[in-house]
Write a structure and sequence with these properties.
By secondary structure, the protein is mostly helical. The protein has a domain of 61 residues. A two-stranded antiparallel ribbon has the order 1-2. Helix 2 crosses helix 3. Helices cover 37% and strands 9% of the residues. The protein is globular and about 35 Å long.
């Protein structure tokens, strides 16, 4: 089982509020859905330093630059997709909002 520490405010439905200016954010542990573990394996073999030579996709969930920028905008944080926690945070935000649609190109691997 994989657990991710996140702010509950990041998981609210759209429109999402900006994070508070202080460091006193409410934290909670979030269990990562099994399908996301399968996606991570299919996308990068769980390698948070993985890079795709033919695109801007990087990290465990192979998040492209445009999607990274979308996550940064909605989460109001600067992210580094080669950082395991940042990549996972963006991936979980995407999953919460779009389910598995961002990874449909690799569905034949993770949907088994």
């Amino acid at each position: 089982m994989t657990i991710l520490l996140v702010s509950t405010k990041w998981l609210l439905p759209n429109p999402q509020p900006r994070l508070p200016e202080t460091n006193k954010q409410t934290k909670t542990f979030l269990e990562i859905p099994e399908v996301m573990n399968r996606i991570a394996f299919c996308e990068s073999s769980n390698n948070h330093k993985a890079r795709n030579d033919s695109s801007t996709a990087r990290g465990t969930y192979q998040i492209i630059k445009g999607t990274e920028e979308l996550c940064e905008k909605w989460l109001d944080v600067e992210l580094d997709m080669l950082n395991r926690n940042d990549n996972e945070l963006c991936a979980m935000w995407l999953f919460n909002r779009y389910k598995t649609k961002p990874w449909r190109a690799s569905k034949s691997c993770w949907s088994k």
